[in-house]
Amino acid sequence: MWIADRVARIRPSGVRRIFDLARTVKDPVDLSLGEPDFDVPEPVKEEAIRSIRSGFNKYTPSGGVAELRQKIMEYLRAKGVVCEDVIITPGVTGGLLLAFMVTLNPGDEVIIPDPYFVLYEYQVLLLGGKPVFFDTYPDFKLREGNLRAAVSPKTKVILINSPNNPTGAVYSGAELEIVAAVAREKNLLVFSDDIYDRFVFNGAPGYFGRLYENTLTFGGFSKDWGMTGWRIGFVAGPREIIDSMVTMQQYVFSAVNSVGQKAALFALDYDTGGLIEGYRQKRDLIYEGIRDKYRVVKPEGAYYIFPEAPGGDGDAFVERALKSKLFIIPGSVFSLKKSHVRISFAAGLPAIEKGIEILRDLA
Ligand code: PLP
After folding, report:
1. Ligand 1 neighbours by CB, cut-off 6 Å
2. Does the N terminus or the C terminus of the chain have fewer Cβ atoms within 10 A?
């Protein structure tokens, strides 16, 4: 009786049940994780410790530390991303929430390619919006016909995520152009979640924000610098929207933690390319290790591979894998379909090798 109606619109992440199941398995081979397996680089930690000791421990401005906002804007502009302003947010998670809060009216629709990162769906629902999914199976490419079929008079936002969680897809220039053309024609906002921007294995990432001015570009420090627990992200885009998000942040989060922002400022000059390079080898290892036994698309980015489960039932397959001590995530967590499974290669080589062995046995 105490709980508000909006809570009925969300439910615990489907991952939780699997985590509970996995907890019953002793020493599982864990290929479920959504965070890099490298630690925050030592110099970044040192910078945070230094800023605590120097007394940088009070509230910061709601939009974030000015120097960090400026530096991120330069970082993005150097990549060709069009943006007038930047806000620092509690991760991309907090950035997305603020962005939806300031742009969605009840009933507004947000178009999301399926499969998708699970948070998008529930944040939209929480705010009374309607997620509208369009299919990208079997190769996880954006097709113009499918995108256009999802557009309605209620559409406000197209949300894309490249490199993609859970598929590892990186959208081509042509795919991004399709999104830009439809958005321009229908006068829509585009939210581009670029959090895996440095995890690309073939060429440079194609930041969508280069193509279309009515874009919010989301990024952060969770993946590129392994700082998932520090909760530092940013959103860049048109000044009017960023201004509204800053005002909203005053009442929702107040501001982001001071020390993390200092560490982030330092991190921007600290190249984690060497740490990320190892992920290409891991990608090759797992792709080559299972491709003759599974229907699978080679991931071009992030650190996930998304094969079809034998028999086409990812939920059942995940339970079978757990019996063999392999912990992976059912595709149904990220999709209207349940045919696939998400395997993370953000793990050590021995775990990946063991995982491949188990997957081959189960195929
Ligand atoms: N966006 C995507 C696609 C993700 O995979 C994740 C984390 O797994 C997030 C956003 C959340 O990022 P943050 O830690 O910055 O809130």
Report:
1. 34, 91-93, 117, 161, 165, 193, 195, 220, 222, 228, 233
2. N
